[in-house]
Structures are given as structure tokens and as C-alpha cells.
Design brief:
Length: about 425
């Protein structure tokens, strides 16, 4: 009888623990709405469909450090009064999800007035920050063989395998410790690459330009780091996305381009394979414990971003310490040339582009619980954990508990009957 009571107590304890773990997972789930609206005017003979089609969507991400689940709630494109709402989801060479619009004309000779809107529901879970220790870090020989290929170590229009960059990278390489190498490269960029407050260009620079002019914003600096890492055999790629910045509203203008950002900031960082932890973010601009100083050079203002603890580039990265929505990963595809062509086409043809990017957190528990996938919502990936799954778990747990109690009572009664006999 004591054994039966002990089994019952253990089973009940396990059930309670599982219930609390499930509730904890549910509480770590956060739900955001991201809305992107574009109003554009194309003068005669300037409209080209490649400027707006396809559209890069926010991505589905799921790994041991970070998870993101994306749903498209609304998608509307209107050109001169004609609405295009049919689309298909495709993938590019780096497996990023693209929204491809059906039956859109490739060229239009007359003036074009375009209205575009896409709204997302994005579910994210709390991040697991790895416990990095220099003594536990692996070397080049510990990088998996399947990553030693042209996908993660090749070069494109962004990371060019510049000879000067390669020479610099080899001078600081620690073959037996990838983490040490990554931190040395990051510290060199901190000290030598300035962040322009008023950049002269919008398109990203390649690694040669960043190294030559010793300046660059978030993705420019990441591109230089990636070139350094790939040149010595360390897999790395670029990731870009947006950061939820509550209360941080701004407007930006560059010639005929206008951007309004509400609770939103766009960002880029490197993803680097560091054995034994796998691919980790290395953030060179927006990271915890960053020290920022203003520098004046020839009437231009720059930021010098450094840190006393180089590990902050990883454990303090925005992907770990802020709410970040991953939009795309640039692994093998070209990056700087398509961006340059897009900006040059828009600017040279006097296309007026007004974009509004807005992010809001859904704070109401009722809103989260009542959220259902409607027929007009496109699911990019199943939700990480839904309240429906949680409720189902609790119901099944209750059924299991009731069944266990009945079985326990039945076995106990049979045991007493045998004793009496």
C-alpha cells in the first residue's frame, strides 16, 4: 500500500511539473503585429515590376536559441486602381520565403500610382543565451565537414575575398579557437570602422569599400566581418531584420525616398559558426554594453562603437537581448548589387517612394487566446506553441489524472478485499 501511495504521489508530482512547464512556455510566447505600407508614384515609362515583385517576407526560424513563427494576415497591391491580392509563396536560393504577386504587369508606359500593404502576425519565444566559455571553444578542425563548402565559405558581390582583408584576417587567426578569432576580428572592427551618422549612401557596401573607407553601418560592418571569417575557413552569413523599439518613432528622407518608422528599427548582423555552440549572432552595432563616442572627421560626424567585453557582441546581440524579427538570411546570393540597382533605379527615375513600417506588441491575453488562423491568412510555419495546444494539454492531463485516480481506487479496493480474505 505504501508503494501504491508513493507511485500516486510521484505521478501527481510529475503531472504538476509538466503543467507548470507548459504554462511557462506559454508565458514566454509573445505576439506582435508588423505592418508595412508603401505609397509610390512612378513617372511615365519608369514602372518595372522587379522593383516590387517578389517581396521578401519575414522568415520562419526555429532553433535551440531562437524561434519565430510568421503569419501573413493581409496582402494588398493596388496599381492605378486595379487590385492584385493573389500571390504564392516561393523560396530564393538562400531558402528565404518570398511573396510572389500573380499577374502583375512587367511594365506600364503611363504614370503609375501604387499602394501596397502587407500585415504580419509574428510569434516569438524568449531567447536562450548560450553559456560561452573560451576554454570550451573549438577550433577550425571542429567545424562540421558539411559546412566546409561554397555555400558558407564562398564569396559573392558582398564579401569579395579581398586580398588586404584576407591578409588582416590571417594575421589575427587562432586556428585552435574560433571564438577567440571571432572576438579579435570584432574588436578590430570596433577600433577601426566608424559608423556614419549621415551616410552618403543607402545601399550596402561590399567588404572592400568598408575596409578601404573605414566606415559602415550595421550590415556593412557585418559584411566585412563575414569576409574576414570566410577567408580563413569559418562559416558565416548575413542576417537582416527589424527590431521592436517601443516608443522610438522616426522619419528618414533621402532625395525622393521617405521612410516612417514606428516602434521599428531595421538592422543587420553576422551569423557565425562557433564550435561547439553552432551558428551564433555577432552584432557589431546594436548590442548590450556598447560604448558610443562621437567622432568628427572633415565636417562629417561618426560613431565609434566599442565594448570592454568583446563577448557582448554575441551574448549581448540584439537577437538575444531585444525583440528581433528575422526578415532574410544572405548566405550565397548576391546582396550589394541588387540593392544598388534598386536604389539607383528609384533615384534616377524620380520615383517617389513613401514607406511606413509599424510594429506593435499584442499585450491583451484575450487577443492572443482568441487569435485564430482565418482562411485568408497564409501560414508560413505552425505556431511555436498555441493556447489551443496548451488547453488540449491541460484537458488531456486532467483526463489522465481522473483515470489514474479511478485505477488507483480500484486497485486499492481489490488489495483490501484480498487482505480480508
Amino acid at each position: 500500500m505504501h508503494v501504491s501511495n508513493r507511485i500516486y504521489g510521484i505521478a501527481l508530482t510529475v503531472l504538476i511539473i509538466l503543467s507548470h512547464v507548459s504554462l511557462l512556455n506559454a508565458s514566454s510566447l509573445k505576439y506582435y503585429k508588423v505592418d508595412i505600407s508603401i505609397y509610390a508614384t512612378f513617372p511615365d515609362n519608369s514602372f518595372q515590376s522587379w522593383l516590387i515583385n517578389p517581396v521578401v517576407s519575414f522568415q520562419n526560424i526555429s532553433n535551440e536559441y531562437f524561434s519565430q513563427s510568421v503569419h501573413i494576415d493581409r496582402f494588398i497591391l493596388n496599381i492605378n486602381g486595379e487590385t492584385f491580392s493573389n500571390y504564392v509563396l516561393t523560396n530564393d536560393g538562400d531558402n528565404n520565403t518570398l511573396i510572389s504577386i500573380n499577374q502583375i504587369p512587367r511594365e506600364i508606359n503611363s504614370t503609375v500610382y501604387m499602394v501596397f500593404n502587407v500585415s504580419y502576425s509574428i510569434f516569438v519565444t524568449s531567447k536562450k543565451v548560450p553559456d560561452l566559455n573560451m576554454s570550451k571553444a573549438g577550433g577550425l578542425d571542429d567545424i562540421p565537414k558539411q559546412l566546409i563548402n561554397n555555400v558558407y565559405l564562398g564569396f559573392n558581390d558582398a564579401w569579395l575575398n579581398d586580398s588586404d582583408v584576407r591578409m588582416l584576417a590571417f594575421s589575427m587567426l587562432n586556428k585552435s579557437n574560433v571564438l577567440d578569432t571571432v572576438l579579435k576580428y570584432s574588436s578590430w572592427i570596433d577600433e577601426n570602422i566608424l559608423y556614419p551618422v549621415n551616410p552618403s549612401h543607402l545601399e550596402p557596401w561590399n567588404s572592400t569599400s568598408v575596409f578601404k573607407y573605414k566606415e559602415g553601418d550595421c550590415d556593412d560592418r557585418a559584411i566585412l566581418l563575414i569576409d574576414m571569417l570566410r577567408s580563413v575557413g569559418i562559416p558565416a552569413y548575413l542576417q537582416v531584420g527589424s527590431i521592436y523599439m517601443n516608443g522610438n518613432n522616426s522619419t528618414e528622407k533621402f532625395n525622393n525616398l521617405y521612410y516612417e518608422l514606428i516602434n521599428t528599427g531595421w538592422h543587420g548582423w553576422a551569423m557565425v559558426y562557433i564550435p561547439p555552440w553552432g551558428f551564433l549572432p555577432v552584432d557589431l552595432t546594436y548590442f548590450k554594453d556598447a560604448s558610443i563616442n562621437y567622432v568628427k572627421i572633415n565636417n562629417s560626424t561618426y560613431l565609434k562603437i566599442t565594448t570592454k567585453n568583446p563577448l557582448s557582441h554575441i551574448i549581448g546581440a540584439a537577437l538575444f537581448t531585444s525583440t528581433v524579427f528575422v526578415a532574410s538570411s544572405i548566405i550565397a546570393s548576391d546582396y550589394t548589387k541588387p540593392s544598388y540597382e534598386w536604389f539607383r533605379t528609384v533615384l534616377n527615375n524620380n520615383i517617389v517612394w513613401r514607406e511606413k513600417d509599424e510594429t506593435h506588441e499584442v499585450l491583451s491575453k484575450d487577443e492572443l487566446q482568441s487569435y485564430t488562423l482565418m482562411e485568408n491568412k497564409e501560414t508560413l510555419i505552425s505556431p511555436i506553441i498555441s493556447t489551443q495546444n496548451l488547453n488540449m494539454f491541460m484537458v488531456l492531463s486532467l483526463i489522465f489524472l481522473v483515470m489514474f485516480v479511478f485505477i488507483f481506487i480500484y486497485v486499492r479496493r481489490r488489495f483490501y478485499i484480498r487482505i480480508r480474505r
